[in-house]
């Protein structure tokens, strides 16, 4: 084994004999350090943050077809570089993103096959990532698995959802790390010291997605487990190729975790013109079908998507600065939802005049949001997609919500495997050609690709609001866990802002449409919590999901009306995973502060030092009323106004399952 080491770039530590040397990698501020070791010709990494070992030596490597692994190799060269830049996203929680990192590139040659592989590390101050690059030219290459592991140094708290190859719509578990077994990512861990670590992946382009499986022999060690094709192969590819990044967010406190830009920074900048992309808030004909008040399908006389109702939504949107209106159940086929070839994605029902409504929306400067529910029938959707997108484009429809509620067709493939990732990425590229922005439901977990394809606006991949309409629902702690878990993967179409939380208000009119509905549903949060979710969880397509009649003339709706679609700056003022989150976001000179709590009431005193000094800000707030409670009184709230300065503080009291929004403007 020999090593060519660029000594001026790389700091060499440990033993210095050529055969056993370790390499020390550092973040720009030097607080995050990784030691690369190679005992017995294996490559391992060990992670230290502020003198605290987070990961013990953990394996790296791939298993390729032909049983070749990255277990035995020689290092051909190592080089490193430093990058520092700022860039401007088209939308997001801040208008400028800083990217400072050290890169390290280990060029290796596999001992058995003599194949060339590079392992690339990137170290930021608040996290690191690594990926594998296969550099030889090969027409066909099967990746059977990955040897990457995350060997935590000690037990800790962890928040996780069960790994599932077909859905992310789950509640979260809060257990000791050693009790987590097979988990989806982002997988979030907090040591007793307060330090947080979240493991995820970035830039999944021509690959499959990963889950993490606890090792059989080490209860603190998690192995990358790739979602396979039906024949067991994980990834079918050719080389040269590069894998997604394995990402580890690292933060001294839970609040800092939420301020990370690492995921977007690991994705490439866009290479084509995306000036058509614009964030927006939307309302829609949606919640009523989930409640069972109306139906997606036309037959049965309870059809939700009528021309008249859509016009009422468009009128309201135009009058109340709401960017878009989504209409589900507009197209024929819902009576066959779940069967093959149910939809052609073009033909409206007789009581829905698509052409007229597109024109009606256009002249009022409201975006009509199209909807493609595929039911998972990929073979059918791909055969219709060009004509469906072309129709929308002709009508001036630039936003489309897609959905994959149902098993994948072809039936042998998993929802989160490479077959579907290819499909999702194909739809994303095609939508870009038609200048269409996407909100993808039942998607694969996002990985920051929206930087490269900004028309990929938002995703579900979460147990969202719909579950509150027809199941036992989401517990109040769910939304206090989400920012630290699912939220680490990027924008989330949770569809919040249900003002009328007691669904029994209209229970007599409901006809359950799925087997999970026991008819006793409620949204487990207060009105102020629902309002705060719009700010806490940023989404560039953000839905205010309640029925139109619950917003019309509602005094609290003014906060939805004022809400910006994108932010200049964001800070997390207070956070404890699963308990509470308070964020402050600025657009121009106006700050929105929003907080949510779990099932426990709490008061949080917020210093207002983010406001400009010596300026009087007018304050408008919507917070819980003294008797508010997610179970017994979810709908009461208090509106208040006042004056504040940077030197004052604000006491935000939140009821059980409650929250609040406070707007500071000049
Ligand atoms: C599931 C989606 O998540 C939901 O938003 C949609 O209304 C239904 N599928 C029907 O497409
Ligand atoms: Ca869903």
Account of the 3D structure:
- With 666 residues, the chain is α+β, with helices and mostly antiparallel strands.
- It has three domains: 2-265, Beta-galactosidase, Chain A, domain 5; 280-554, TIM Barrel (Alpha-Beta Barrel); 576-665, Immunoglobulin-like (Sandwich).
- The chain has twelve helices and 36 strands.
- The strands form six sheets. Strands 6, 7, 8, 9, 10, 11, 13, 14, 16, 17, 20 and 21 form a twelve-stranded antiparallel sheet that branches. A seven-stranded parallel sheet has the order 27-26-25-24-23-22-28. The chain has a six-stranded antiparallel sheet with strand order 29-30-31-36-33-34.
- The longest helix is centred in the middle third of the chain and has 17 residues, at 378-394.
- It is globular, with a radius of gyration of 25 Å.
- The termini are far apart.
- Bound molecules: 1-deoxynojirimycin and calcium ion.
- 1-deoxynojirimycin (NOJ) is lined by residues 286, 328, 373, 403, 405, 441, 460, 466.
TL;DR of this structure?
The protein is of the alpha+beta class and 666 residues long. Helices cover 15% and strands 35% of the residues.
Number of helices: 12
Helix percent reads 10-25%
What is the arithmetic mean of pLDDT?
94
Query: What is the total tally of β strands?
Result: 36
**How many structural domains are formed by the residues?**
3
Listed once per kind, the bound small molecules are: 1-deoxynojirimycin, calcium ion
Largest sheet: 12 strands, antiparallel
Low-confidence runs of at least 5 consecutive residues = 1-20
Shape: globular
Oligomer: single chain
User: Strand percentage, roughly?
Assistant: 25-35%
Return the CATH architecture of the largest domain. Alpha-Beta Barrel
- First-residue to last-residue Cα separation: 66 Å
- CATH homology group of the largest domain: Aldolase class I
